[in-house]
Amino acid sequence: MENTVNILKASKNDLPKILELQKIAYLSEAEIHNDYSIQPLNQTIEELEREYEKNIILKLINNNILIGSVRAFEENNCVFIGKLIIHPEYQNKGYGTKLLLEIETYFKCKIFKLFTSSKSNKNLYIYKKMVIKKLNKKKD
Fold first, then answer.
1. Whether the model pTM is above 0.90
2. Confidence band (pLDDT; 50, 70, 90) for 111?
3. Which residues pair with 114 in a beta bridge?
4. 5-139: which CATH number, 1.10.730.10, 3.30.1330.60, 3.40.630.30, 3.40.630.10?
5. Angle (CA) 48 36 83, round 5°
């Protein structure tokens, strides 16, 4: 059976599932820092609904299952990308890259900022890989 992957703009009805996925995906961050009080693990649905009003939130569906999400907003000619999440069983398969490339298409801005911990080696790897890919594309 072939994988059917779709990236769509999330609706308000998707938020509870996105929040549930976020809490699963951020457990590894909490473990890295030995801190389970981090905001993504403790975010409420009301807080996410407020983010929804300001952000574009995308969802990644694989065979009708929500496996990823990313959100971003623009402020002062800069796009802030946050909470790139992929279910742990689907990580390291290129889904995070797909979400990052897709979220960029929603903005005309050329400056993008993401934040992650200096201890988050997987996140740092994907972000550096994206920058290198963009720089190489500009050279072509």
1. no
2. confident
3. 81
4. 3.40.630.30
5. 35
Measure Cα distances from 128 to 49, 97, 123 in Å. 30, 11, 9
d(CA 19, CA 30): 16
Joined tokens for residue 31: 């473990």
Q: Where are the domains of the chain?
A: 5-139
CA atoms within 13 A on the CB side of 122: 15
CA Rg, the chain, in Å?
Answer: 15
Q: Which two tokens stand for residue 120?
A: 């988050």
State how far the Cα of 42 lies from the Cα of 38, in Å rounded to an integer.
7
